[in-house]
Amino acid sequence: xxxxxxxxxxxxxxxxxxxxxxxxxxxxxxxxxxxxxxxxxxxxxxxxxxxxxxxxxxxxxxxxxxxxxxxxxxxxxxxxxxxxxxxxxxxxxxxxxxxxxxxxxxxxxxxxxxxxxxxxxxxxxxxxxxxxxxxxxxxxxxxxxxxxxxxxxxxxxxxxxxxxxxxxxxxxxxxxxxxxxxxxxxxxxxxxxxxxxxxxxxxxxxxxxxxxxxxxxxxxxxxxxxxxxxxxxxxxxxxxxxxxxxxxxxxxxxxxxxxxxxxxxxxxxxxxxxxxxxxxxxxxxxxxxxxxxxxx
Length: 296
What we know:
two-stranded parallel ribbon; 2 strands; elongated; single chain
């Protein structure tokens, strides 16, 4: 049953009554309301105005928030399991420590949003805009992020194990110390990304663009870097054991201390790449013949 705005105002203004479970609140104006700890599970909030609303610790399990305006909303510690947030406006909202497991965020606007330490395994972020979002220490394992815009986002210390980031835009993103084991980063844009100490073991980086990326001390064991662009990237002290670098572009890359001893470098381009005595190449591989420069 559709509830009127007057009835809704009476409900939310009652000092001890915040039970909105299962109500039809589509297109309702809740902007600026204090709905902290409210029960809004199963509620219909399609196209509702929740901008600047306090929803901290609210129960929004299975709620339909598609096309809702949640800009600048406080959703800290909210329970959004299986919530529908497709095409919702969450720009500059605070979702720190929220539980988004199983939620649908397809085509959502999350520009500049805070998603610090969120729980979000198996979330669908397809086509979402996460530019400049703070996802530090977030758990995004197995989440769907194909084609997502994460340029300049903070993903330091985040868990992206087996996540789908194919075709994602991660230019200038901060991924220091993040966990991307088994992740799909095929064709991803990682230009100038900060990838120090990142775990990319067994990751799919085929045709990925890592131009000028900082991969110092990165773990790339068994990663597939076939035809990846690593030109001018810094791979100092990176571990590339059993990595596949077939037709990869390593021109002008920094390779001091990198371990390629068991890597596949077939048809890889190393023109003007810089290596040192500590760099390990496969047996029989001649880096000078490949155009690399030994730094004394």
